[in-house]
Amino acid sequence: MDMVSLLFIALSLSADCFAVALSGSISMRSLSRVQILRVSSAFGLSQFLMPVLGWLAGRTIVEIIAVFDH
């Protein structure tokens, strides 16, 4: 998988999670707008970083496994 595809997948996952967190937070009347954006951004950012970190970990592990691969 190339980096551009990975970034598009990560962006789409984060946008989806951001929308769900935003709509869920809006339904809670006790949160301010700043708190709503913080919660939504935290969820969106975490969903963006997970595929990127997984890709980086996979690239690192494949170099280690390649030594033992036959």
Report on the structure:
With 70 residues, this protein is mostly helical. The protein has one domain. It is 86% helix and 0% strand. The chain is built from 2 helices and no strands. It has helices spanning 3-26, 33-68. The relative contact order is 0.15. The mean pLDDT is 87.
Short description:
The protein is an all-alpha fold. The protein has 2 helices and no strands.
Query: What is the straight-line distance between the termini?
Result: 22 Å
How many helices? The count is: 2
Tell me the number of strands.
0
**How much is the radius of gyration in Å?**
17 Å
- The unreliable regions are none
3D shape: elongated
Sheet with most strands: none
Provide mean pLDDT, rounded.
87
Annotation keywords:
elongated
Give the arrangement of secondary structure elements.
Layout: H1 3-26, H2 33-68
Helix pairs in contact: 1-2
